[in-house]
Design goal:
About 25% of the residues lie in helices and about 15% in strands. The chain contains four helices and six strands. The protein has helices at about 30-45, 60-75, 125-140, 155-165; strands spanning about 5-10, 50-55, 80, 145-150, 180-190, 190-200. InterPro entries: His_Pase_superF_clade-1, His_PPase_superfam, PGM_Phosphatase. This is Broad specificity phosphatase PhoE. Pfam families: His_Phos_1.
């Protein structure tokens, strides 16, 4: 029996002084604190007898920059998988993340009719389909080893809930997926057997931007 671990790593803090909901918008880089978070995760994974043989990231800059120190720590070439990208969101480019009271304006109401889907962006179910396909491909390609997939909060959280057998609809305030956190999925051959959540950069989170990122 081969035991394989796929680590879902959320990117570190983003430089976002204007509090924009950046979503899939290009050009949002890590802040200095985010870069420290990325290095902290790389140090964490380098400790002990880790067997990381591949590092794959979302195409967005913040994910690529978070993945780079991990790939360097293990002497690996960083790969990209579009399936790990942030969730589509019709509010991207706005400041609603920083000023949620704007949602009370009638011009937004047509987007908010179904929070269980959600109606303002890519459905939770669609995110899970693409994320689990990326997880399965990574697991099969690197059977018996460890792989790091760098993605974003909502896709990681929805994927976690799917593996735990929970409904995908949820309260965003209750997501256990902090900046630079690891959601580690362990498989025996093709069978999912356990999930472990850690925050290697937890000591740095107190200084992080409280504006919801992605």
């Amino acid at each position: 029996m081969a035991t394989t671990t796929v680590h879902l790593l959320r990117h570190g803090e983003v430089h976002n002084p204007d509090g924009i909901l950046y979503g899939r918008i290009a050009g949002y880089r890590l802040s200095e604190l985010g870069q420290r978070m990325a290095r902290r995760v790389a140090d964490h994974l380098s400790e002990g007898d880790r067997d990381v043989v591949a590092v794959v990231a979302s195409p967005l800059q913040r994910a690529q920059e978070t993945a780079a120190p991990v790939a360097t720590a293990f002497g690996l070439e960083l790969a990209t998988d579009d399936r790990l990208i942030e969730a589509g969101n019709s509010f991207e480019g706005t400041s609603i993340g920083k000023h949620p009271g704007q949602l009370a304006h009638p011009r937004y109401w047509t987007r908010l009719w179904n929070p269980l889907r959600p109606s303002w962006g890519e459905s939770y179910a669609d995110q899970v389909v693409r994320m689990r396909a990326a997880v399965d491909d990574a697991r099969r390609a690197h059977l018996g080893h460890e792989v790091v997939l760098v993605s974003h909060q909502l896709p990681v959280w929805a994927t976690r809930r799917s593996f735990e057998g929970r409904t995908l609809a949820h309260d965003p305030r209750r997501r256990e997926c902090a900046l630079a956190s690891l959601t580690s999925l362990t498989f025996d051959d093709d069978r999912f057997v356990s999930l472990h959540y850690t925050e290697p950069a937890g000591a740095l989170l107190a200084g992080a931007d409280p504006v919801p990122g992605a």
